[in-house]
Design goal:
Layout (H helix, E strand, L loop, with lengths): L1 H12 L6 H26 L7 H17 L5 H28 L8 H10 L1
Helix pairs in contact: 3-4, 4-5
Amino acid sequence: MGHRLLCAILAIASPNFLTPFNLTVVIREASFVGLVALGQTLVLLLGGIDLSVGAAAGLSAIVGCLFLKSLGIPPWLVIPATALFGLCIGSISGFFYFSSQIKSIYRAPRCFVWIAWSGNS
């Protein structure tokens, strides 16, 4: 309901809001948030929470841009490489998060994993 109200207000305020070009831009920008939300849904369903996902996603985006611009790798290789990099970052973060739950060597709360990982990303 709120989404429809917001779209109606924006369509009235700006006649360019409902143009095909602008809708394409809005969908493209929202897809990133949707992919991150999809991953967070899985984490929440497993009983956890991950606050470092923003840092990991940002780092993955930076690495993808470096692959594309600095190294000159073609986009069809950059996209899976960036996704694989993000998967590795998330796997490492998840390993430390869940290993601190199973056997805490340092007896530190799991939230320290989020803080430490976000700072390192």
